[in-house]
Design a protein that fits this description.
Blueprint (H helix, E strand, L loop, with lengths): L10 H21 L1 E4 L2 E4 L24 E5 L8 H14 L4 E6 L4 H5 L10 H6 L10 E2 L5 E4 L8 H5 L8 H7 L7 E6 L5 H9 L2 E7 L2 H5 L1 H14 L5 E10 L4 H14 L3 E7 L3 H7 L4 H4 L4 H16 L4
Length: about 325
């Protein structure tokens, strides 16, 4: 007769069993996922919607007048400047003529595109009227078809100088009107505030693109920004519309990123772009090289993400 003895699992055996079960669950989850732009995401895409393949746009037969889009968020470090550079370069690669406006006294957009900012005409000179023709301030970048009007720290004094001006909220609109017919799209890289400069940008624009870091504190400020956009629409610029919210710095490995993106989609629905920008060290590397990611690392998933964003904007009709 064989004696049967009971066995109590040791702590190590419990740990091994738990690890095996966890691995099995992870493997099961992976079967329900696909690889999209280097990110492991649900088959419906990071935003929970079916993944769409946006077509490569047809070349334009002519250029202008430009549609003006302000990239705006009062929180800093959410990807406004990176998106302005990368989206502008991607649109230029698709044959669109793009003008970027550095509207932040920090001058990060100008530095990120490697253009001089001192002892040259800039956006501050145009706002004050010391330079009348915007063409004098426009500089070319390393990407054909992608130009910029630079800024430097002098722009920080603009609000003080403009506060007593008549129709002070519309000064930038008057500047851009002079070059609008030469471009297909004008992108305004706003400073991280909701002051007079940002109101100028919103008043001059046809649409707003909100880059939103997939992080809780970034999410909190969106309601205030949307309220500001609504006030500008009511009082200064009835044609202004929210083109969309772009999720940036998304990391599918963290529950926090996924929850924030889910909350944004629940709140804003289809106004959230299907394109999602992942977190990567390639963006600061590209900034140091003073080149767009599409040029610095053209095969990288983040470069393809911005090309997809350009195609999505064109498909939505936000860009010609």
């Amino acid at each position: 007769m064989v004696e049967v003895t009971s066995h109590t699992p040791t702590r190590g055996e419990h740990s091994a069993s738990n690890s095996a079960n966890r691995l099995a669950r992870m493997t099961a989850k992976r079967r329900d996922t696909v690889e999209l732009e280097g990110l492991t995401v649900p088959r419906n895409g990071p935003t929970g919607r079916p993944v769409t393949s946006f077509p490569v746009p047809e070349p334009l037969k002519g250029h202008g007048p430009a549609r003006i889009i302000a990239l705006c968020n009062q929180k800093g470090g959410v990807g406004k400047t990176t998106t302005t550079i990368s989206l502008g370069a991607a649109l230029a690669d698709y044959g669109r003529r793009v003008l970027a406006i550095d509207f932040d006294p920090q001058g990060a957009l100008s530095a990120g595109l490697g253009v001089p900012t001192h002892d040259v005409p800039n956006i501050y000179d145009l706002l004050l009227g010391t330079v009348k023709d915007p063409n004098e301030a426009i500089q070319t970048t390393s990407t054909p078809g992608f130009d910029i009007i630079p800024a430097n720290i002098d722009l920080s004094a603009a609000e003080v100088h403009l506060v007593n001006e008549v129709a002070r909220e519309q000064i930038l609109a008057g500047v851009l009107r002079k070059v609008s017919n030469d471009y297909d799209i004008i992108l305004i890289d706003c400073q991280p505030s909701l002051g007079l400069l940002t109101v100028n940008a919103l008043t001059a624009s046809h649409g707003v693109l909100i880059p939103l870091e997939c992080e809780f504190f970034a999410l909190r400020g969106v309601a205030l920004l949307v309220e500001t956009i609504d006030k500008v629409t009511d009082r200064l610029n009835p044609s202004l519309k929210l083109d969309g919210i772009l999720a940036t710095m998304y990391d599918s490995r963290t529950l926090h990123s996924r929850e924030v993106l889910e909350r944004v989609v629940e709140t804003f629905g289809d106004r959230v772009f299907e394109t999602v920008i992942g977190r990567t060290v390639k963006f600061p590397d590209a900034s140091v090289a003073a080149a767009p990611i599409t040029q610095f690392a053209p095969e990288h998933p983040s470069a393809e993400a911005y090309r997809q964003l350009a195609r999505e904007l064109i498909s939505r009709g936000a860009v010609a």
